[in-house]
Amino acid sequence: MSRLIRGDEGKEMDAGSTGEHAPLLLPLSSSAVVSHLKACQNLAASHSQDAFREYLKVLDDALSVEMDGAESNQAQEELAEVQRLFRQNRDELERYFCGYLSEGFVKFKKRELQTNVGGAEDEDQLSLVDNEDLEETIAISSITQRADAFFAEPLWALNQRFAVLNGGEHVTEATNPASPIQFCESLRKALKLLPLDPKVKQLAYKVYDDELIKIIQSISEEINQYLGHQGVLPHLKYSVPSGQAPASALQGGEEAPDTASPVEQLAAELSSSQPNPNLPPEEYQNSLVQAIRGLQNQMVGATSTLPPGGVMVSSSDLMGALQALQSTGAPEDIGAQGQVIPLDVSQIVERLHAQLKTEENDGAVEKNDMQTIDLVGMLFEYMLNDENLPDSIKALLSYLHTPFLKIAFIDPGFFEAAEHPARVLLNNLAEAGANWVSDDGSAQYDMYNKIKDIVNRILHEFDNDVKFITELLLEFSSYTKNIVRRQELMERRATEKAQGEEKLREVKLKVNEEVRGRTEGKELPSAVLLFLLQPWSDFLSFALLRYGDKSDKWGKALAVVDDVLWCVEPKDNPADKTRQLEIHDDLISAVLNGFETIGYDQIKGNKLIDALSSLIKLAMQSKKAEPAPAPMRDKLERIAAEKAGSKEIRAENSTPEESQMVESLKMIEFGTWFEFEGGKRLKVAWYNARTSHYMLVDQMGKRVDMMSGLNLARQMISSKTKIISGSSKPFFERALENIFQKLNEKAELAKPGDHLNETS
Q: Which of 220-224, 338-342, 507-511, 578-582 has the lowest mean pLDDT?
């Protein structure tokens, strides 16, 4: 069985695997592998070059200390000669060290890298080396073991990521070009440039022991970060070591750091058991699993109770019973949407015990196995109550309970690894069901049948090989990825079109507000109202949309409105009459140009211009024209308001409850799903805050409606529409949070003190 990736505290999850295979991923192209290896090589070279220079300085100081403590002049002179050699050959040593290290990446690409401690090909050869080489081998072994132990997590992650670059073949510290042994081997080869006695070599390795810890920390962290950002196992998580490294075996007479007391360790364990939502998602999910396990242990006895004469059920018996349940519990063909009855998860344990009894195993299930059964049961119970999922999808996915319980027994990484293929598949199936299947019986992209096909295949074809789940995951992910691309494209086009329409709507609203603001409270003739609210409003919209509200065109178009309103008012002052006469021709010319710009009907335009001229002349005679009748004015203003898209705002008054709901709706995010009467689901793809309109798209990304906030609020108040309580978190994380919360509540109720109070 293939080795599976995990994203937690660094514990390898290996269910019977020998570790011969790396995580199953799509292969990288040769050019991508070369590019990544060069980048990693450059990172390693950059760090190691600076670190090696620092190492030589520290070694020089160490030689000076040794010289000061030398027992004789001869020993002092010998050390001085060694110091001189190091100083003279500083650049050459650095070049050789970095060269050997970089060569490891080239060998890795050719799959020729296999570095063993001290350069020996295998353990049998250790008996053939002389004492000097053996001491050197032991020193290197001590250094690498300390570094490997302290940096187990990032080095494990490096092995996994380099395995991807290695075409999926397993990578160990011996074949990892950035592992501690490669640095030690490069140093061993570089030191051959100088004639050094065993004591000096021991000193050189002793100094390098401390320096290597610094190098490995920076290099492993940066290479992991680089490869993760490049998409090589991007969600693989590990914990970076903190605190003091374990004492080196090369340090004579030094004591290891004090360890925490049992009480302190217990306190640390208790505090660490509380999930921290601020952790990265993978680490947070793993902490949830650990906390759930802790709560299960807290509420269940240390051992399972055996019936009289009973035996403990073995794992193989459990797997056999589960296989039988999977076969007998799977319907021959799961029906169409709305015809599937959800599996009763609560009866699974009873059926499991019944199956075990038929196999003459009237015994108890191990505590850990029972906890796994309970945990999988709670996972699927949460799914059946998840409001985010349509009922038809809940019913479908409920039949995965027994196969997924098998997976939990086959591979413990199912719960511990956030990127376990079975977990990712369940997340993807749930998300696809929520996105493209509705409770009204509709399903976009034939998604219901696609999910049904996956469930049927798992029920009838899944045996004990998780690789089959991985294949289904790749197939389903490829299918949904194409759908997402199509949906996003359609949604983007719909949004762009809606934004254009809304921009025009905003322009018309502004124009309507400008005109209404100038005409409000004034008694005006019908011709003036018709001119301002219809053709001239269209010209104002054109000028604002084309040139903007800071433009000269917009200013002059508004000035025409002001001039018309001023000119049709009766004039008694001779100066006003003179000005009225002066601007008449320019005003009529501006109106004519405006009509031509928007292509207004020439006959209607000439009639309006003649009517305006007559009204201006009447005003010059100090006579007031008859104002428009109230019904006519109301009709003109209503038509203009509807054209501007402000019908609801002006014509309807909202109640306090409706106003509050409208304000609440302004806080929702794009992507929020609504379920309407009958079960149809629509998503808010875009919202215009100024016009208070929501663009709703269906599950294909196709625009269905441009609904006003008030209309949407009224539907929600009348319970015809509801927000689906979705979450950006994957299904599995939501489920773990829910399980932890419920178990935590039970644990609080079951505190020992509470039982004492009850019985006293």
A: 338-342
Q: Examine the pLDDT at 4 and tell me if it is beyond 50.
A: no
CB 113 within 8 A of CB 41: no
pLDDT at 314 (0 to 100):
59
User: Model confidence at 472, in pLDDT bands (50, 70, 90)?
Assistant: very high
Where in the chain are the domains? 30-243, 281-464, 500-651, 654-726
Residue 121 pLDDT > 60 = no
Question: For 693-731, b where at least 16 C-beta lie within 10 A, e where not — what string?
Answer: bbbbbbbebebbebbbbbbbbbbbeeeebeebebeeebb
Distances (CA, A) of 540 to 53, 511, 548, 555, 634: 73, 6, 10, 10, 21
The answer to whether the CB of 674 falls within 8 A of the CB of 722 is: yes
A 10 A CB-CB count for 208 gives 24
Largest distance between two CA atoms of the chain: 128
Q: Are 321 and 345 in contact (CB under 8 A)?
A: no
Q: How far is CA 331 from CA 88, 144, 328, in A?
A: 80, 56, 8
pLDDT at 302 over 50: no
Report the predicted TM-score, pTM, of the whole model to 2 decimal places: 0.47
Cα–Cα distance, 502 to 92 (Å, whole number): 70
Q: Give the burial string for 40-62 (b: 16+ CB within 10 Å, else e).
A: bbebbbebbeebbeebbeebeee
Pairing of strands 681-688, 673-676: antiparallel
The amino acid present at 593, given as its one-letter code, is N
In sequence order, the 6+-apart residues with CB closer than 8 A to the CB of 401 are: 343, 345, 348, 376, 377, 380
CA distances from 156 to 24, 220, 270, 312 (A): 16, 10, 27, 36
Q: What is the arithmetic mean of pLDDT over 400-414?
A: 85
DSSP string for 481-496: HHHHHHHHHHHHHHHH
Domain 654-726 has CATH 3.40.50.10090: no
Q: State the SS3 of 332-370.
A: CCCCCCCCCCCCCHHHHHHHHHHHHHHCCCCCECCHHHH
Is the distance from CB of 367 to CB of 412 less than 8 angstroms? no
Q: What is the DSSP letter of 446?
A: G
C-alpha–C-alpha distance, residues 636 and 700, integer Å = 40
- Nearest to residue 23, comparing CAs of 507, 473, 696? 473
Q: List the strands of the sheet with 703-708, edge to edge.
A: 703-708, 693-697, 681-688, 673-676, 721-723
Q: Is 255 left (phi over 0), alpha (psi -120 to 50) or beta?
A: beta
485: its two tokens: 């691309």
Nearest CA to 371 among 386, 353, 355, 349? 349
Phi, psi at residue 684, to the nearest 5°?
-80, 110
